[in-house]
Amino acid sequence: MRTIHGVGFWVGACCLAAACGGQAGAPNDKRGEDDSGGGQGGGKGGMTPKEPTPEECAQSGASFADTPLRRLTRTQYAQSIEALLAVPASVSEGLPDDGRVGPFPANPTQPVSDVHVRRFMEAAESLAAASTEKLDTLLGCAPSDACAEAFVTRFAERAFRMPLKDAESKQMVTLYRSERAQSSIKEGVQLAVEAILQSPRFLYHVENKTGAATKEPLAALSPYEVASRLSYFFWNAPPDEALLAAARDGSLANAEVVRRQAERLMSDDRARNFTTQFGLHWFELNPLERLTKDPRRFLWFGEPARKAMQDEAALFFDYSLRRGTLTSMLTAPYSFVSQPLLPIYGVAAPAGLDPSKPTALDPRQRAGALTLPGFLATHAGPQETSPVKRGVFVYKNLLCQNIALPNIEIPPLP
């Protein structure tokens, strides 16, 4: 079954469909002044492409892919735990590795083994024990059975990202009472938290949970499911109170409300994780963290330069997704240059160099993400450049094409 909602991530869906259809950045795109780069050294900008309307997206012929049951990624798990329990979720480091959909971490088809189940159980036990050390803080009231039972229901609703039915609420309370009867309030709460953190409704993005069974190929998302999609898309975290309020009153069924909420989430500092990680995954720059080069060939390469490349890429993608366009991401004659990168770019430091602001570069040599030093360094060998690696990246990640295995009938070279 496929699921849809009001605007289908209005801009994102159209841009991705256009990119894989070979339409993105067409010569007749009109661009404005927002992606000029501004800042240090000026830099000539273009104009911003006209944003497609939801109606234009709907009429574009874009298809909707099937929506499988998706497990939280490790980042989503960690940030969900922090939102729910206000404790660092370093325990997520012991969870199973994420799968991949293209270059992006995702778990739509990842199998769950006994080892995976045990790791999720151990994580839940550890988190529940840590969070109940300060029970009154966790509950938000003086510990009592009434307070604990109200907390258990409230916690389950936040963890499952939608209201509980009466039978589900009773099940949560019964679980608490079964342990409470033979131990204490603390142990009862701890067991309930453990169970909730191991529930598929927490660990997976469960959709169409409240909808009726249908044989139609498309099913509308509920307001709470829209809220979850928005929050995990922009923040990799559960919906905040503003999103939940919009789900409760049903206003998320309105496309304009979805747009306003998306703009609010994107303008929040918590979206920085999305903007940077989206670019780093798409352009395969995460290997920068452990990148090495032959010091005899690249005298300039060391920890300061490697760290500067990481910071530059994160700032560039954050700026591009917040203030630029897809076109400027691939053509921008500016970047976020710090002192260790000046020799690589071959430019003198502008007066008052600020790496957090864009610096204008020679457009004959630099054009967007494909000419970032971090991209060039990761798509190369330790001693030499690699046009093949860069070409494969463009073919697969930008043109959305797969490279077939070579024909086994190819005769050997003479």
Task: Give an overview in words.
This protein has helices at residues 10-20, 54-58, 74-85, 114-131, 135-139, 145-160, 166-180, 185-197, 200-203, 223-234, 241-248, 255-267, 272-282, 303-323, 326-331, 342-345, 373-378, 387-398, and strands spanning 2-4, 70-71, 100-101, 104-105, 204-205, 218-220, 334-335, 359-360. By secondary structure, the protein is mainly alpha-helical. The strands form 4 sheets. The chain has a two-stranded parallel sheet. Strands 2-5 form a two-stranded antiparallel sheet. A two-stranded antiparallel sheet has the order 3-4. α6 (145-160) packs across α7. The chain starts with a strand and ends in a 16-residue tail after the last helix. The model is unreliable at 1-37 and 42-49 (pLDDT under 50).
